[in-house]
């Protein structure tokens, strides 16, 4: 496709010596993973190791041995970075990564979404010397020094330091900032993320303070500027890798949102070329969500944009269809857009996926779906329940339309049959998900449409088995079982403990 590097976030999937307690039963041996790295290098794909050194440490901090490393004793995602034991542990693990990866030019230290950062007593005490931003920058500088001495560029995600605009300059200038932004696209945005405000804001909602911190947020025409933080970080003297996404939070578990991700990927790649950034990275967050094949039409967009930086988005998407399927027929774009429509009970946080809000694979507790529905019905006069119900009711028509368009497209394809096969499977699971969700909203009427005997539970158990089989094409049996459970078990629990009568789910 034209990529030249891979960012490897491998977490517990290697047989580590630094943290043997956290190693997955399905982990690669170091010998096997070195063979994978050698193969990647032979294809011209430069490896960049990624070790999370602040947040997203669930796979470590859930183990009792490391409870003392937690920022918050009741949470298990964030290291207490002020503790000397944590820093020694992280530096030892960096050395083990370097031994595994061999010669590298870049090493990614993670650092994003550290929601509990600086909440421990030790860090609170240290923070008095300059605030959270300086504490974060000093920690990154400390663990980055051994890398800088070896001529390796340390990297971090951009969001955390952007929460503290006054502290950005405290980072060593050798640090490469990977500025992830999965919302902006290839047009003037209606709103932009202002990290220190914790939300996306329209032009009218910006304050003089926002503009003082980031004058790049407004372009010369007075409009909001997409990916403005990349401009600000470059002005401050940092090399920037601008990151888009081919799958992210908000996608359905079976299929990605094609138009949203396409515009995001093209916009970030075009910005990279126009502003001379160090590079662009298309991320693909795999916490039990859609397959590689369902993203292939998206992944080819970034290299195409870099090579054709002035081409319009529609033209780039046409090129991608031709490259993937060997035909200029554009019907596939609308088909996959319709199939990939997310709605409740097929997306993350409304199944059993990431129900904690953390990046782990813990199954949802009994009654999770019931409690979620209760929350939707009780808050804001039930507005969220009403909106979700309408979305579910609309889903069946859209998905059916997408499946029909996909079937019409199939005879014109000359290649890319593995991609089409995955989209057909995604269409099946999405349509079944629409029926199940409809049964939750509408009760007996929708339930009886599932099977002649009206057994939603039987259908769910069949779907769980079929989904596990489908996942087994690309996952180990253990991982396929875990994933199938996360998608379906909370729904099975709901119907096992819900009486459905008189057309109302109670």
Radius of gyration: 24 Å
CATH topology group of the domain at 1-178: TIM Barrel
Order of strands in the sheet with most strands: 3-4-5-8-9
Assigned CATH architecture of the domain at 1-178: Alpha-Beta Barrel
Q: Ends: how far apart?
A: 51 Å
Name the shape in a single word: globular
Percentage of helical residues? 40-55%
Structural class: alpha/beta
The CATH class of the domain at 1-178: Alpha Beta
Characteristics:
506 residues; alpha/beta; TIM Barrel; 5-stranded parallel β-sheet; two-stranded parallel ribbon; 19 helices; 46% helix
Please give the structural blueprint:
Layout: E1 5-9, H1 30-42, E2 46-50, H2 58-61, H3 84-101, E3 106-108, H4 121-127, H5 131-149, E4 153-157, H6 159-162, E5 176-180, E6 192-194, E7 199-201, H7 208-213, H8 228-235, E8 240-247, H9 258-274, E9 279-284, H10 296-299, H11 301-307, H12 313-325, H13 331-339, H14 368-378, H15 383-409, H16 417-442, H17 444-448, H18 456-471, H19 477-496, E10 500-501, E11 504-505
Parallel strand pairs: 1-2, 3-4, 4-5, 5-8, 8-9
Antiparallel strand pairs: 6-7, 10-11
Helix pairs in contact: 9-11, 13-15, 15-16, 16-18, 18-19
